[in-house]
Write a structure and sequence with these properties.
The chain is an alpha+beta fold. The chain contains seven helices and ten strands. The protein is elongated.
Length: 241
């Protein structure tokens, strides 16, 4: 796949510049034997979407952010029961601040690596430990006390990592993952609720998360159970060559 970005200044559109650029891109893509062309476009940018569709692009996925207003959020006992149910089944919930050290960080890395495979659109190898740590645990706004982990014995089976935006003071669900064999037990819901508690504790005005139209189970949790509101996102547009 050849991922690309084609941009024309609004004042220069309609003069053939975009078409000429695209023709050059298409010729080069064929020279390098690309199998398909991929670009993300805003779902509200109808002009660009029309340009792409006329050239054989089709929509493959819809990605967007969802927002949860903390002022209006209420902990429903039917939801918080997921935490109690998980604990009764032997699951323990801790934060990385309670279990510091490289050994536990490596366990978390392995959990990320396994669960990352099921993210829609993921392809390729997963980063090695040091690289993963740089782009996960050491991101600005990520703290050990905001990384909620589900444990079965000493095994890490689920995680929610929260990230704080220092400018807006809001929180972001940076990552959510549960091992395949532990799914269907509402562990992800329990972890997300613990993350929301972290957001409430610091007075975050809202929580954001990223959603993909192909991730039905996560959409059900975010949208149907927790009440996240979708914001305009982007379409993944693909042309096969």
């Amino acid at each position: 796949s050849l991922w690309h970005t084609l941009v024309v200044h609004p004042d220069a559109r309609g003069n053939g510049a975009g078409g000429a650029l695209y023709a050059a891109l298409l010729e080069w893509a064929r020279e390098v034997r690309a199998s398909r062309l991929v670009e993300y476009m805003k779902e509200t940018d109808e002009r660009s979407l029309t340009f792409a569709r006329r050239r054989g692009y089709v929509q493959e996925r819809h990605t967007f952010e969802s927002v949860l207003d903390m002022a209006a959020f209420e902990f429903d006992v039917r939801l918080t029961a997921s935490i109690d149910d998980a604990e009764r089944s032997g699951i323990r919930f801790v934060t990385l601040s309670e279990e510091p050290g490289e050994d536990n960080e490596r366990k978390l890395h392995e959990l990320y690596r396994i669960t990352h495979r099921d993210i829609p659109g993921y392809a390729g190898d997963y980063p090695w430990f040091e690289e993963w740590k740089k782009w996960s645990l050491e991101l600005p706004g990520v703290r050990p006390e905001w990384i909620h982990i589900a444990k079965d014995g000493e095994r890490y089976v689920g995680v929610v990592t929260m990230q704080r935006n220092e400018q807006t003071q809001a929180m972001y669900h940076e990552y959510t993952g549960v091992l395949p064999e532990y799914r269907g037990r509402r562990i992800a819901l329990a972890l997300k609720l613990l993350g929301i508690r972290s957001a409430l504790a610091i007075g975050a005005p809202y929580v954001k998360t990223h959603n993909d139209s192909m991730n039905g189970p996560m959409l059900r949790i975010n949208r149907d159970l927790l009440g996240f509101r979708a914001e305009p996102g982007a379409y993944k547009m693909v042309r096969e060559l």
